[in-house]
TrEMBL record:
The gene is LOC112281099. One of its GO terms (molecular function) is mRNA binding. NCBIfam families: PPR. Belongs to the PPR family. P subfamily. Keywords: Repeat. This is Pentacotripeptide-repeat region of PRORP domain-containing protein. Pfam families: PPR_2, PPR_3. InterPro entries: PPR5-like, PPR_rpt, TPR-like_helical_dom_sf. PPR repeats lie at residues 113-147, 223-257, 258-292, 293-327, 328-362. The lineage of its organism: Eukaryota, Viridiplantae, Streptophyta, Embryophyta, Bryophyta.
Length: 381
């Protein structure tokens, strides 16, 4: 087997969450005469582990290079920074990424490159840290590292997420007019999402029209994510008609609805209290062979609770115990907070008993927050 085949095998095991088997396979590989430590191979493994939220394993693979007497290079640091940016807590992950970035500067063969800055620009956008974005751009200029399309997409995304649409448009102007860099689908998707959050539907729809009018497939053509972003923008404001229109355009463009598409539709229907349509959408998703996730469950629970459909919420929570992805603390807390808001103290008590039976216990702060509306005090730990 070639190295690429071994990587494919380990990646496949990762998708099945067989982490112990990954380590055993990797250890076996190290014992073979043909094995040669390769930073590129390790980099791919680290990124794969990061995407799977297995940060400890990503760090382990990074340290394994050092244990074998090799020096990590820029590609390995880039991979580990990427892994940390996948952390559940984005701010903690970003802080660790910055530490690694500063560490790179002290290493002779690990100087930050264009890829490093592009990764960090994207990370800055995730945490809406505009000051870091501007700092990285200034450093790139000092180091004579020329920003490319990915760099500008990161900056545009950062300003968009921060709601600074003026600066976002200025950056787009610089990229297109001054630097002669053509926008791609990622650029346009970022613009659509930013205008959607800013409720500037006129500009949002203008960007979408320009994408659909593009004749050259090499330019910014809509993809499945484009339509999902459009649907989500309308769904947030309960614009069900426009949401459904976006969905029909997606299907007309020969894109199949994915899990995210169905969740957006369910959120939109739930927002306006169209519970029957939301339920129908859920069953269509199941018929399409998609497994509901925690995000699916939470979207439906929020809708049921918003419209006081507590029996349906309880039934859904019971059904979810049989899903591959079982309910977690966040799912129970949606219902717990809703009961507390409606002063349904007996339901709160029964729900907390159910949570205890399945081994879920909210921390004291969260529990007290949920009960705050009718001033119950407790020492739940």
């Amino acid at each position: 087997m070639r190295q690429a085949d071994w990587f494919a095998l380990l990646a496949a095991l990762g998708k099945q969450s067989k982490w112990t088997l990954i380590l055993e396979t990797f250890r076996w590989m190290q014992e073979q005469k043909w094995y040669r430590l390769d930073n590129g191979f390790h980099s791919k493994l680290i990124v794969t582990m990061g995407k799977a939220k297995q940060l400890r394993m990503a760090v382990w693979f990074f340290k394994e290079v050092k244990r074998n007497g090799h020096r990590p290079d820029t590609s390995l640091y880039n991979a580990l920074i990427t892994a940390h940016l996948q952390a559940e807590d984005k701010r903690i992950g970003f802080a660790k990424a910055l530490q690694l970035f500063e560490e790179m500067k002290t290493k002779a063969n690990c100087k930050p490159d264009l890829v490093t800055y592009n990764i960090l620009l994207r990370g800055s956008a995730q945490v809406r840290d505009i000051l870091q974005v501007e700092r990285f751009f200034e450093e790139m200029e000092v180091e004579k590292i020329h920003p490319n399309l990915i760099s500008y997409n990161g900056v545009i995304g950062a300003y968009g997420k921060a709601g600074d649409l003026v600066q976002m448009e200025k950056t787009l102007f610089t990229m297109r007019i001054l630097k002669h860099i053509k926008p791609d689908t990622v650029t346009s998707n970022t613009l659509i999402e930013s205008y959607g959050y800013g409720r500037d539907f006129v500009k949002m729809e203008q960007v979408f029209k320009s994408m659909t009018a593009a004749k050259n497939k090499q330019t910014s053509r809509p993809d499945a994510k484009t339509y999902n972003i459009l649907m989500a923008s309308y769904a947030r404001l309960g614009e069900v008609g426009k949401m459904e229109w976006s969905c029909s355009r997606m299907e007309a463009a020969n894109f199949k609805l994915n899990l995210r598409s169905y969740e957006i539709l369910m959120t939109g229907y739930g927002e306006v209290g169209a519970i029957a349509s939301m339920s129908e959408c859920f069953y269509q998703m199941l018929q399409a062979g998609m497994q509901p996730q925690k995000s699916t469950l939470n979207a439906m629970l929020r809708a049921y609770c918003k419209h006081n459909c507590f029996e349906e919420a309880e039934e859904l929570l019971n059904d979810a115990l049989g899903w591959q992805t079982r309910p977690r603390t966040s799912s129970y807390l949606i219902l717990l907070r809703a009961y507390a808001k409606e002063r349904r103290s007996s339901d709160v008590e029964m729900l907390t008993e159910r949570m205890a039976k399945v081994g879920i216990a909210p921390c004291a702060a969260t529990f007290l927050e949920a009960l705050e509306s009718f001033s119950l005090s407790c020492g739940y730990n």
